[in-house]
Specification:
This protein is mostly helical. Helices cover 68% and strands 3% of the residues. It is built from eight helices and two strands. The protein has a two-stranded antiparallel ribbon. 43% of the residues are buried.
Length: 223
């Protein structure tokens, strides 16, 4: 059951993040732009000008709680799904990087950008962007045959896209998406992959579990 619980944790963590983000965004009295505003702006504690952007997030506490909860669920999912991963160095390193990404999400919530910008950026954003997308890229090299390996090609695609977007974001290049939009490309890869991997894992576990009726027939035959 542990891998299935871990998969549910991944799904719950990603879904609550996306739902809370939309709820917090809608609570803004000033316009919030996915192209111009960073995700971190939703968790800023104070109202005012921040990096040239007008920021005022009434539900910042909810957003920061979502960051922390999502990070904890990522780490918990990594621990609980261990049996679903193949053996080997690549698998271990991928799990370590995913766990580090979860810690980065939690730090981003515990240290809002306008309270402790250095910790938020270096301990949160950079870890999320770099460790998260490297984990996805490594997931593409997982040996086939395990339950989690079925999501490896999604990891390659999302990881490569996220790393390119990270470079463009930090370089201030939006390429039509805006700096905030480019940040989303690099940050959303991990939660999207976790939903895919979690869904595949739950489906695999449910499909492989014998039904009660089939187990009953086997017992009668054995008797």
């Amino acid at each position: 059951m542990n891998p299935r619980i871990g998969a549910i944790a991944w799904l719950a963590g990603a879904l609550q993040f996306f739902v809370v983000m939309i709820v917090v965004q809608l609570a803004w009295t000033t316009p919030y732009s996915w192209a111009d505003n960073n995700i971190s702006d939703l968790g800023n504690v104070h109202c005012g000008d921040f990096g040239g952007r007008s920021v005022c997030s009434p539900l910042h506490g909810l957003m920061n709680a979502s960051f922390v909860l999502g990070g904890l669920l990522i780490v918990g999912g990594v621990v609980l799904t261990r049996a679903a991963w193949p053996r080997g160095v690549v698998s271990t390193l991928t799990r370590v990087l995913l766990a580090a990404t979860g810690v980065g999400w939690a730090i981003a919530g515990l240290a809002p950008a306008d309270v402790n910008e250095d910790l938020h950026v270096l301990g949160g954003a950079v870890v999320i962007f770099l460790a998260g997308n490297l984990a996805l890229l490594l997931a593409g090299a997982l040996r086939p045959g395990s339950a989690i390996s079925r999501a490896r090609w999604y990891g390659v695609t999302l990881g490569l896209l996220g790393l390119v977007a990270m470079v463009l974001h930090f370089g201030g290049h939006g390429l039509g998406l805006g700096v905030g939009g480019m940040e989303r490309v690099t940050a959303y890869g991990v939660p999207v992959w976790l939903m895919i991997a979690g869904g595949l894992l739950i489906r695999r576990r449910a499909g492989s579990a014998p039904s009660t009726r089939a187990m009953g027939r086997s017992v009668r035959r054995a008797g």
